[in-house]
Design brief:
nucleotide-binding; transferase; kinase; Nucleoside_diP_kinase; four-stranded antiparallel β-sheet; 140 residues; binds adenosine-3',5'-cyclic-monophosphate; alpha+beta; 4 strands; Alpha-Beta Plaits; NDK-like_dom
């Protein structure tokens, strides 16, 4: 059975552009409940740790640099079928391929500066949520 939680980041491009509020509104209107949230900033080392699964990919170094270039918002979201429904809401990784009306289609600037992150599995949703939030911050 699919889990009911996913994890998201509003990335530096969307935060800097002042789109965090509009993106959170779309997330809530799609039926996701915010159960933990904070504005923070990654160091290059922490960005490297978060995206460690991509460390062999050619874009890894640039991704770590970009993800530590400014503030982000990290959040744990709750909804039935959360991981899959959230990926539908945000659209394809490359905004050029994202469906009309998706968050990335509306707000993303490029495949790297693609406005939001969404977990790709229930297992990674738990790992990524735990990366940002302590047990005390995950009380809901
Ligand atoms: P995200 O869903 O956060 O997961 C990995 C990130 O790497 C991705 O979004 C993009 O921001 C970034 N990225 C940069 N280049 C690529 C690429 N060619 N393919 C996939 N992801 C990329």
């Amino acid at each position: 059975m699919a889990g009911n939680r996913t994890f998201t980041m509003i990335k530096p491009d969307a935060f800097e552009a002042g789109n965090s509020g509009a993106i959170l509104k779309m997330i809530e209107e799609a039926g996701f409940k915010i159960v933990a949230m904070k504005a923070t900033r990654l160091t290059p080392e922490l960005a490297g740790k978060f995206y460690e699964v991509h460390k062999e990919r050619p874009f890894y170094a640039d991704l770590c640099k970009y993800m530590s270039s400014g503030p982000i918002i990290a959040a744990i979201l709750e909804k039935d079928n959360a991981v899959e429904d959230f990926r539908t809401l945000i659209g394809a990784t490359n905004p050029a391929n994202a469906a009309e009306g998706t968050i990335r289609k509306i707000f993303a600037k490029s495949i790297e500066a693609n406005a939001v992150h969404g977990s790709d599995s229930d297992e990674n949703a738990a790992i990524e949520g735990n990366f940002y939030f302590s047990q005390l911050e995950r009380v809901l």
